[in-house]
Amino acid sequence: MGWHAPSLTYLCLNSNTIDDQGLHSMVSGLKNCHNLTWLDLGGNQISAAGMKSLSELFHSDNCSLKDLFLSGMHIGDDGIVALAGALKGNTSLTHVRFNSEEAGITEVGWKALSKLLCDTSTVNNTYLSNHILQTVGYEGRGHDSFGVAQYLAMNKHLQEDAAIYKMFQSHRDFDMKPFFQRGLKFLPLAVKWFERAGKCRFRSDERYLHMLESRKLSAAYQFVREFQVLVLRGQA
Fold first, then answer.
1. Under 8 Å between Cβ of 43 and 73
2. What's the rounded Cα separation, in Å, for the pair 196 and 62?
3. Looking at residues 102-121, what average pLDDT do you find?
4. Residues 6 or more apart in contact with residue 67 via CB below 8 angstroms
5. pTM of the entire predicted model
């Protein structure tokens, strides 16, 4: 489907018997709608396969979609897991709206959303998590399983500082070893990052300040320990 509608901002396709194949065909056209910010796909016959095809739209260079409506569908765990995967790296979508009670999502799906919003496996993965999404379900009636509601609130209220707060909250120490291969060149970047962290909007929070100082000391200790060895070896 090669249609082109650059001025389109609002598109309601609710209850149009759209299935996975139909959605897949539509995505190539939707990618050309550079100003599309509101899309309603509710009441259709879209499964996990269809959700996966949305990845192409979410990762298009000109994607400006902010609101996605999926009401009236049994999304299920497979569908929400596929949607979470499609949203990795997306920097525009802020609201995914559906009825949590009818969506058929269990802890499997909520865990996938939690990981999308804050992947705690490594510091870098936490940094690369989704810090844009603010609503999953309907606002005020969201699901609080596995920290989903908490992470959404961070994204909404902390905005560009959400990533930093999640990193401090999720990791008692920052493992600096992956950066040691860059030698002392990385040190000024680390210093600048901690300076940036010290200017966050929640810098007056005593708990945050304690976390900040603790992580700074830990990172400094790791650098001193590692590069002292390098100096002794004549490799710095």
1. yes
2. 29
3. 95
4. 37, 38, 39, 93, 94, 95, 97
5. 0.88
